Each structure stands twice: as structure tokens, then as C-alpha cells.
Amino acid sequence: MARLASASGRSRRWASRSRASHMSDVLSVIGGSAAEAVISASRALSGPRRSLSGPRGPPSRRGVGQSRARPARSSTHRTGPPAVYPRAGSPTRRRVPPVRSEGTGRLPTWKAGNRSTGNYGRWNGAAPMGRQTPRAQPYLRVPTSRRGRSRLLTEQERHRPNGRTHDMSVPETMVGDGDLYNPYEDTELLREATAAGRKVADVIYLSLGETWNGAAEGLVAALGRDVPPHSHGYVLSPYGLPTLRRMLRSRIPAEHRLPPSARLGEEYDVAVSHGGTRNAMFHFGRLMAQRSRGPIARPAVVCSSPGWDYPGVFGALGYDVHRFPLDPGTEYQPDPGDVARTLKKARAETSGPLLLVVNAQHNPTGGNWAEDTVRAMVRAAREVGSGVLVDDAYYALHDPGVTPVSALRILLEEFGALPAARRPPWLAVRSLSKQFHCNGWGIGALTGPPDVLEDLLGRLLPEYGFVSSVPLQAAMAAWLGSPESDDYLARQRGEYALKRVHMAQHLTGELGYPQDAFFIGPCGPYLLMRTPPWYGARTDEPYRSFCLRRSGVLLGEGHMTTPGALPVTGQDHVRLFLGPGTRTLTRAVQRMAAAGLTWQGGPATGR
């Protein structure tokens, strides 16, 4: 027993030194406010650190939060392989404690393996246990709603969020659609990869913010438990399921810290969006275009570059697109002067509707725009009579300790000072599907002046349909009313904070990226990275296609607002989705490094 206690003590000391070294190295890479946010996340979410010593059973043999049972003494147990405890520089060898087989009551027997290959043996026909390097990462303390207590997130859960496999391979059933036209570039890239002999399941998909299997379990459970029978029928209101709308009308003012002087139901109101935020933006643009005062008064939209696909939404409605640049030298914070000049130029070119897009939790950089900057943008829009679209798709997704700038609050404060007749039209969209990993639900919140919501939903919606996804709205209402939804968001924020640190280390390590060649903001699920400089001379295929063909990793488009054109830096960008677990993210980086897709290039790329 003394020898076992000594080994356990050595394990704890080794694990503590490794964790401290790992976090110190990574925090020195990112530095600044990002490091402070991660420190806050670790302090808030870390719990007592478990010893890595002692025999560990397979995760499948015990549930989350269950204690590790001591195996019964038997001759088989005494003559099995000795327990091996980890020490610095050595692999961890795990053995499975014997468990009686169901139906026979017999204890399993130990089958020796070949240690030279890393297979230390197995119990009966179980899968062999290979070499395992002890992980030097802090355990996350996860709040739970039951009994008001919290528990530690296990190693398996940290890489399989919510207990679900998170390998980020693309389900083939979500891609195949026969010979009909498919407008999505990712589908074409996957088809090309398949034609070249790569299996779709082998692709690590880091393009769109999609997990396919990571929806909040409590939300999925609510869909089967909290949906009343009448929710399968029509809703006789264009503003969404009343239960969900009441929930949103209570949450939006609190979460966005709206000023008490702005009266709900008079200066603004809240409705449910049920076809995705893109759909809501499209019909808001359609509503504004209908207010045009003549055929030559073309509508115009002003948005950031890089940014999301606003040109795809408003260009289809005949909008002229004007862009203001975001410079990585200022951490992608807008220059209010650039925004004001772009608005004035757009106004000089048209007498029709003008629209400014404010995306304060910026996609794809993850930046959190400064409050003074957002306020100056809203004032510039007010001066030229421009409407405002507030895109809060990722408002709730931010690192612990970070307060997201509320563009909605700033807009109400600035527009509230104007007489009602002079206030430009505006709309704020907020995605609920993105924050709970259920993109297919397409549910969110719409906040705007009552007259805008009445025109948008009370007049335009009946022209093309009824309120849809009603059972999903009922489940979302029940989920938002549960403490589990807040616990889920708190855990998700901590996980993303740690993954940002994790990726900063690997980008500067395996891929050799300098610190100014990528940006990891405190908000949203993406990081933005430059394409390697040696690839700039290549024009035969996009870097995303090249990366997929070489490594099997599909990255995302980095500048959807400027298709076919480079940002102000003159160098292309790609974005990387941080949704999967750290193992998958590490595997993606390792694939890219092995394919020579480093900052300096390698043999596989001809560099």
C-alpha cells in the first residue's frame, strides 16, 4: 500500500507540473486580453484535479458521475497484469478491471499482448488497450441542475460534448442529392474528393458551423417530452408560437441589457423567426426595397469585409453592395471614419433605401467590436437616414468573463432620442439554433419596431406561408425555461475558450504560423487564418480545395462578403470551425502539417 501511495503521489505531482507548463506555454502564445479571458474561464470552470493513477475501467462500463467500483478479489484478479502508474516521460498503461459476464457469471481472463506494438493485452475479446499519453489539461467543472450541485467533466466527455460522438465527419445522407443542381460549394468539393478516392466519412469538416450530432441533449429530450399535441397544427399568429414568444420577450431585454427607457411593445417588440436568420434578413431587405421611390432609386447595403454573406442575401434583391474594410492590425475593429465615408458615398449614389449591417460579435473573426465603435456606426447611419440590421447570430457565444457588446442596446439609445417619425427602420436578428447546435431547426428571435414587425410578419409572411416548425418552437420554449439551458451555455463557453487556447498552440507549433497570421477572437465559434504566403502565386485552385485534396481537411471561406477578391491585406484567408473536440482539431492540424500545409511549406507542396 505504501508503494501504491508513493506512485499515486508522484502521478499527482507530475500531472500538476504538466498542466502548469501546458497552460503557461499556451497563454504566452496568445497573450493580452484573450489570455485573461482563458484564465478566468479556467478559474471558473476548473475543479479538483483527479489523479491519473490507478486502474481505470472503460468509459462504457460506468455512467457519468458514477464512482469507480473496486474490483472484487479473485484469483483472476491477483494473477492479472500489474497496475502501472504514469510517471513523467512514460506512457500510461490502462487495464480493465474484471467484470462478470452477463448471463454466465464467469470472470473474464487476461490475454497478453505484444508490448512492442503498444498493445498491452486485453480481457477476453475486448478491444486492445494501446499507448495513451496522459493529457495535461484542466478538468472542467460542469454545473448541473439536479440537486443544485456540479460535477467534473470526464476526459471522454471533454472530447465528446454532451456525451455524443463529435468526430466532424460529414454524414453522407446529408450530402447526396442525385443529379439536381446544388448551389453549395462545399458539396462540390466533397464530390471532387470522393471522385479522387477519398471517403466522405474520412473528411474532417471545419467549414460551416455545423456538428450534425452535437445538439443539446436536453433540447432534444424536450422535443419528445414537452411538445403538446396542438403544436402539430397551425398557429393562428404570424409572430410565432405564443409560448416561445413570451419567453423571448422576457429574455431579450435582460440578456441584451436594454435601457429601461425603451418600452417593450411601444419602441420595440420581439417575435419568433422560424426559417433561419438568413430568411429574416432577406424579407427585411425585401420590405425596405418596396419603399423605394422610383426605378432609379436602387437600394444599397453597407457591410464589413471580411464578413458573412450579406451580398448573397441582398444582392439577390437588387441591392448595391458597399464594403468597409477591417484591418487585422486593429484586431478587425471597424474604423468609424471608414464606415461614415462608405455610408455617405452610398447615399450619394442612391436616393433609395440604405441599410447598414452591424455584426458586433463578428463572423468570421470572432472579434467583439468596441462599444464606442458601434455607437459611432449607429450615429453615422442616423445622419444619412440609413436603416440598420443588427446581426446577433453569435451574441450568446463568448468566452467566460467577456461581456458581448449589445448593439441592440446602443441602437435603442441612439434612435430613442429621435422623434418617432424620423427613426429609420431597423431589425435585430438573433439565432437560437446556432447557440444550441441545432441549425436545422432555424429558430431565432426578431427584435424591431412594432410597425416593422407588423409589416414583415403580419403583411409579408401571409403572402408566402404560415408559421412553421411549431413543434420545434414548443420544445425550444420548454428548454429556455429550464436551468439546463443556461448550464449548457456556460459549459459551452468554457469549452470554446479552452479550444481557442489549444488551437493557438497548435497553429504556432505544428503549422509554424506567426502570431499575426491568425486571429482568435473571444466571440463566436471560428478563428480566421491566412493562407500560407507560398500559396499566393497559385491560381489553379482555391486553397480550400487544395487543403482538402492534400489533407482531407475542409476549411471554411474566410471572406464571404468579397467573393473572388482579396481583403485589404492582399492575402487570402480561411476560417476554421472550433466546434469539434480538441482531439479532432489536433488531428486536423496534424494532417495539414503532414501534407506540408505549414506557413513555410514542405516537401508535399513542392516547397
TrEMBL record:
Q: Where is the composition biased (Basic residues)?
A: 10-20
Biased composition regions of type Basic and acidic residues, renumbered to the chain: 156-169
Query: InterPro entries given for it?
Result: Aminotransferase_I/II_large (IPR004839), AspAT/PAT-like (IPR050596), PyrdxlP-dep_Trfase (IPR015424), PyrdxlP-dep_Trfase_major (IPR015421)
What is the required cofactor set for this protein? pyridoxal 5'-phosphate
Give the Pfam families listed for this entry. Answer: Aminotran_1_2
Q: Which UniProt keywords apply?
A: Aminotransferase, Pyridoxal phosphate, Transferase
Keyword Cytoplasm on entry = no
Q: Which GO molecular function, any one, fits this protein according to its record? A: pyridoxal phosphate binding
- All copies of the Aminotransferase class I/classII large domain together span 300-538
Bias-annotated ranges (Low complexity): 45-63
Q: Where is the signal peptide?
A: none
Q: Name one GO biological process term.
A: amino acid metabolic process
Positions of region (Disordered): 1-24, 41-133, 156-176
Looking up CDD domains in the UniProt record yields: AAT_like
Which PANTHER family does the annotation name? ASPARTATE AMINOTRANSFERASE
Could you say which protein family the record assigns here? Belongs to the class-I pyridoxal-phosphate-dependent aminotransferase family.
Q: What is this protein called?
A: Aminotransferase class I/classII large domain-containing protein
Source species: Streptomyces violaceoruber
